[in-house]
Write a structure and sequence with these properties.
By secondary structure, the chain is mainly beta. The longest helix is centred in the first third of the chain and has 13 residues, at 2-14.
Length: 776
């Protein structure tokens, strides 16, 4: 049945479905196609696709009105084949094109909730990493516990960690860099030479697949250009901060161009290790390099290839057994949170005709990750002096260390064929992840373990748009996916005689069939205002629990689904842009991940277990605005409101004690978050940008009821252009040196009584720096 379906779809593209009138809408100034231009005749209407093409069924000679934001409207008589040129006019608010979907679409005409951070906003932030922008995006959060954000939550859904034993490498929030899937390993969020950041919120599985039940973060770098370009950026700051970045663009001829960018970033990490007497145990040392090649052998063929290499040997030393806010640590083990990635992608576009386009997207990566830390956060001298724990008297040292090494190989291939407003595609993914862990694993059952995940997915998808009326558009896409997970796990532990023995092996194969869809209706009231409504279903793959003594029924867990309804309004004029989205979501077969301490006095004796034990709801609003108060003053406001609920579920801790979770808000789900940004462009090349953000309280975990504290932050930058090619910027982040937390655990650590209490890690204090940019 599946193959008949494929043949039927392919045959569609060979059929003669041409409308009476076929045309192309182009920008008169540069000859480029205009996407999403409106072509209207009385009650009949159409809009142009990513190639600027349209078709409309009207009699010859009918008056057609062609319009698009940023261009002067035009009225022309219908001809069999038309080529229409629109004249651009200068407006103060540029139209934003979303690049990461199945086709390029205007943000104004898009039904999804998407936050777009364009090149000018990236530059204005003076940020060096995506981490500095997260608080400006409504209903996007991240969990600490790593040297850079890896684990994101959108609308309260997303992982908070991926320690050994936490199951398959499936993630609720996708992280994509230049068509390269880096979900769960997204430390490569450096902002230098980025063109645009797009954050899709709500279920996106029908477009992006299994790693998108909550949404997707997509980063797009600048493509190779025809003109020569050479840019440099140099930064210094407190905490021994140093960064040097460079990009170089060169065109060999009209068909072949090349772009290279590289960045090296260093800082000590704002921690002082009292025991080791060093201040760089939590260092950030990051090297990231990218090469892009653009090749256009004919006007109908376009190929962009990307190669990346990252070497990030970051330290990790953020926890302290006295919860101090002075950024002092006492660990005697070397913490590490490192990543090495090499990979690439190739995007090929072929236009066979005015209405038929083929796209191929290929990517491959290999990543080595190490996450290691001192499990007791201190040393023998500290435990003796502060809490009277004498290893000589006790007969053992209160010292624990945990290390997890991952190797992930990932390959994806996507083939996409479009005709007019109909898109059909197929997607294949093959991933292998090997984990090696040493420490106190599976609640103390194992001392070392090896896991091997083989993940394979095959899916097909459809998208079609239909103009119901001249101003009313229906858009539908759906995706069918089959994936297979094969898990093999081995582990060793100590028996009663302290002899090493092999624990039971875990070998499981799971197969899941999943469906994702999205149907939306867009009403374009005029060129300035549109109304949208949609319903979408997203999915997340199941997996296998790695604990060797779980019964066979408890080892696998199934897929999770999220069904969300949204309504929204988007409005844009010459100096004002506003988007508001209201949503309601229902979580089904929710994957609940629980961690619990199994042995009193052992801070590493956590056991992780995932099951489809939960269900819940999400409700909220996302509101984003930009207002040009004066030609020299820009005001930005973004607000997110989120109300989540997790129904009651049960889980077990040490000695078979049952605990109840849920019946409250989801973890990492602040009710309110938002930001305000004010930018002033002054005379003589001066500009100033002030940003303030706020985040409400939230639960740290589903395993306990401890909460963070609300906080607000302020960031400030002052820039001065020097001539036509240079700029110097003085910037400060966390201006008022606030102490706020990024992660919290609740367990027993302090001997001899081992009371359970909350442990928190703190974000960095105030940062001050100076950046010099120079470009040719």
């Amino acid at each position: 049945m599946f193959y008949k379906f494929i043949i039927t779809i392919l045959s569609f593209f060979t059929a003669d479905l041409s409308a009476q009138i076929i045309g192309t809408v182009l920008n008169r100034s540069d000859g480029n196609p205009i996407v999403a231009a409106n072509v209207v005749a009385d009650l009949n209407g159409a809009s142009t696709d990513s190639l600027g093409k349209f078709s409309i069924d009207v009699p010859l000679g009918t008056k057609l009105k062609i319009s698009h934001i940023g261009f002067k409207p035009s009225t022309q008589k219908a001809e069999k084949i038309m080529s229409i040129l629109l004249d651009p006019y200068l407006i103060e608010t540029d139209e934003i094109i979303v690049l990461s979907g199945l086709n390029d679409e205007s943000l104004q005409r898009l039904s999804s909730s998407v936050t777009v951070i364009a090149l000018d906003e990236i530059k204005r932030s003076s940020g060096q990493h995506f981490q500095t922008l997260i608080d400006q995006i409504p209903n996007l959060t991240w969990a600490g516990g790593t040297s850079r954000p890896r684990y994101f939550q959108i609308r309260g859904i997303g992982e908070r960690s991926h320690y050994f034993g936490e199951g398959a490498p499936n993630f609720s929030v996708g992280f994509i860099l230049d068509d390269i899937d880096l979900s769960g390993i997204g430390m490569l969020g450096h902002l230098f030479d980025l063109q645009q950041i797009e954050v899709f919120k709500g279920p996106q599985s029908s477009v992006f697949g299994a790693n998108a039940i909550a949404g997707v973060i997509s980063l797009r770098s600048v493509d190779p250009q025809k003109q020569f370009e050479n840019k440099h950026s140099f930064s210094i700051g407190n905490d021994d901060h140093f960064q040097f970045s460079n990009s170089f663009n060169f065109s060999f001829n009209e068909r072949l161009s090349f772009r290279f960018s590289g960045i090296y970033n260093y800082r000590d990490g704002f921690r002082e290790n009292i025991f080791k007497k060093v201040d760089d145990s939590n260092k950030k040392e990051e090297g990231f390099y990218r090469m892009k090649i653009g090749f256009k052998p004919t006007k109908n063929i376009d190929l962009v290839s990307t190669l990346i290499y990252a070497n990030i040997p970051n330290g990790y030393d953020i926890w302290s057994p006295d919860n101090n806010t002075n950024y002092e640590t006492y660990s005697d083990g070397d913490g590490e949170d490192s990543q090495k990635t090499i990979g690439g992608s190739a995007r090929l576009n072929i236009s066979f005709s005015k209405t038929v386009k083929f796209t191929s997207i290929t990517s491959a990566t290999e990543t080595d990750l190490v996450h290691a830390y001192d499990g007791d956060w201190a040393n023998d001298a500290y435990w003796y002096e502060q809490h009277g724990f004498d290893p000589i008297v006790e007969g053992w040292s209160y010292s624990f260390y945990d290390e997890n090494k991952k190797n992930r190989k990932n390959f994806t291939q996507e083939l996409r064929l479009s005709k007019d407003k109909f898109i059909f595609g197929m997607f294949y993914k093959k991933m292998n992840e090997k984990d090696r862990a040493n420490g106190y694993l599976f609640g103390g059952l194992a001392t070392d373990a090896i896991s091997n995940y083989d993940f394979e997915a095959l899916s097909s998808y459809l998208q079609f748009d239909r103009d119901i009326l001249s101003k009313l558009k229906l858009s539908t896409n759906f995706r069918i996916e089959k994936n297979t997970i094969q898990y093999n796990g081995t582990s060793n532990g100590l028996n009663d005689y302290w002899e090493l023995e092999e624990l039971p092996r875990v070998n499981r194969v799971t197969d899941d069939f999943m469906l994702g869809y999205r149907t939306s209706i867009i009403f374009n009231r005029n060129n300035s205002t549109s109304f949208t409504t949609s319903i979408a279903r997203g999915y997340k793959s199941g997996g296998v629990n790695q604990q060797p003594y779980l019964n066979e029924l408890s080892q696998p867990y199934g897929p999770e689904a999220l069904i969300t309804a949204e309504v929204g309004v988007k409005h844009q004029t010459h100096n004002f842009r506003s988007n508001i989205i209201c949503f309601y979501g229902l979580r089904k077969d929710q994957q609940v991940s629980i961690s619990s301490q199994q042995v009193e006095g052992d801070p590493n004796s956590f056991i992780y277990y995932t099951s489809n034990a939960g269900s819940g709801t999400i409700t909220g609003i996302e509101w984003e605005n930009r207002l040009k108060i004066l030609p020299s003053i820009v005001f930005d406001l973004s607000i997110g409101y989120l109300d989540t609920w997790v129904n009651t579920f049960n889980y077990f801790i040490a000695d078979g004690i049952k605990r109840t979770g849920g019946n409250r808000q989801a973890a990492m789900s602040p009710k309110i978050n938002g930001s305000i940004n004010l930018t002033y462009y002054g005379p003589l090349g001066f500009s100033t940008s002030l940003n303030t953000s706020y985040k409400d309280t939230y639960y740290y975990s589903d395993s306990h009821d401890e909460k963070s504290r609300s906080y607000s932050l302020a960031n400030l930058s002052i820039s001065k252009t020097i001539g036509n090619s240079s700029e110097i910027t003085l910037w400060t982040r966390n201006v008022f040196d606030k102490r706020y937390t990024t992660r919290g655990f609740y367990f027993a650590l302090i001997p001899p009584d081992y009371p359970e209490q909350l442990w928190e890690s703190y974000a960095d204090p105030r940062q001050i720096g100076l950046t010099y940019n120079y470009g040719l």
